[in-house]
Write a structure and sequence with these properties.
By secondary structure, the chain is of the alpha/beta class. It contains twelve helices and twelve strands. The strands form three sheets. Strands 4-3-5-12-6 form a five-stranded mixed β-sheet. Strands 9-8-10-7-11 form a five-stranded mixed β-sheet, sandwiched between helices. Helix 8 links the parallel strand 8 and strand 9. Helix 1 crosses helix 4 and helix 2 crosses helix 3. The radius of gyration is 24 Å and the shape is elongated. The structure holds 2-phosphoglycolic acid. The site of 2-phosphoglycolic acid has 11 residues, from helix 8.
Length: about 300
């Protein structure tokens, strides 16, 4: 059997794009060349890897099993190419970072600081919610991830960084603004603007209230913390968000934190990477930087929590 990396890259592209012509386009090949390579591969191994489902080409059952292994090879190949680039020009590191929507402010501040000190390194940042971030980790995409709780099912190396307190926010004229010791039960009677399904913050809030025997009422669902803040400022309800997502609004006095008993919900930010992903020097340097600097970042929020 003569198997080539190119054939495995074609398999990858078909799995991701769902058809031969898009896969051909991505790999700068013609569609007949892609079809021919796949036919050759299937003939060589004597198995059918793909089947048609409506307009999409999808992996067959046996194809899925084989893909688990072939993906490891293509990822390792990509690493080899990256490592060769890195070695060729060892001062120009590329670092792929992914972070949850809620940590956007935190990670952006850190990247800004890191980039000032390391002008020869390039950080590419992807921001998305927890669910999509886990998919990216499964696909070996990011080098380093900043997120809430790491998913238990993946083989990861993770380190807790700093607390990520979740608090109730309201617009400044809200009747509860300025009140102290508001009972949790009372807060649960109010309407909330919630995050979308797939958000780690949302999962944590639901779990916390469930444990207390309460259910939070949400009128509106928003795809980002930014949208929640706008809605809360507009008086559409209360919000329950990370302290690290509301700095600018607190400073501008557009929002207030409500003093609710049993809150904040205590969570942690984690820096995470796949166990089987070997970090190149630049990514390692970035990881060390985050671990070193995180506490200082957390300290800059302390005064918002002092009563
Ligand atoms: P979220 O992330 O933006 O998906 O809510 C928070 C988390 O990682 O738990």
């Amino acid at each position: 059997m003569h198997l080539t990396i190119r054939q495995l890259q074609i398999v990858d592209a078909i799995v991701q794009l769902g058809n031969y012509s898009l896969a051909a386009e991505r790999l700068h090949m013609t569609q007949p060349a892609v079809s021919m390579q796949m036919k050759k591969l299937e003939d060589d191994i004597g198995l059918i890897l793909f089947e048609r489902k409506g307009k999409r080409i999808v992996l067959s059952d046996v194809g899925s099993d084989i893909y688990q292994h072939s993906r490891q090879l293509t990822v390792a190949y990509d690493h080899l190419i990256e490592a060769m680039h890195e070695i060729k020009d060892s001062h120009k590191g590329r670092i792929k970072v992914a972070a949850t929507t809620t940590s956007n402010h935190l990670i952006t501040q850190m990247i800004a600081c890191f980039s000032k000190q390391n002008k020869d390194m390039k950080v590419a940042l992807k921001i998305t919610n927890r669910e999509k971030l886990i998919q990216q980790l499964q696909n070996f995409e990011p080098d380093i991830v900043l997120m809430g709780e790491p998913p238990p099912k993946l083989e990861l190396v993770s380190e807790p960084l700093i607390p990520n307190p979740l608090l109730v926010i309201a617009h400044t004229n809200h009747p509860l603004a300025g009140k102290t010791g508001i009972p949790l039960k009372q807060i649960a009677e109010h309407e909330f603007v919630a995050r979308e399904q797939g958000s780690g913050t949302r999962d944590a809030i639901e779990l916390f209230f469930k444990k207390k025997g309460l259910i939070l009422k949400s009128t509106l669902e928003m795809g980002s913390n930014e949208a929640i803040k706008h809605a809360v400022i507009a008086g559409l309800g209360l919000g329950l968000v990370s302290l690290h997502s509301i700095k600018l609004e607190l400073e501008a006095k557009k929002l207030v934190i409500l003093d609710v008993n049993q809150l904040p919900i205590k969570r942690y930010w984690h820096i995470v990477k796949r166990k089987d992903k070997k970090l190149l020097p630049a990514a390692k340097q970035f990881q060390n930087f985050i671990v070193r600097e995180a506490q200082e970042y957390a300290n800059s929020y302390d005064h918002f929590l002092k009563k």
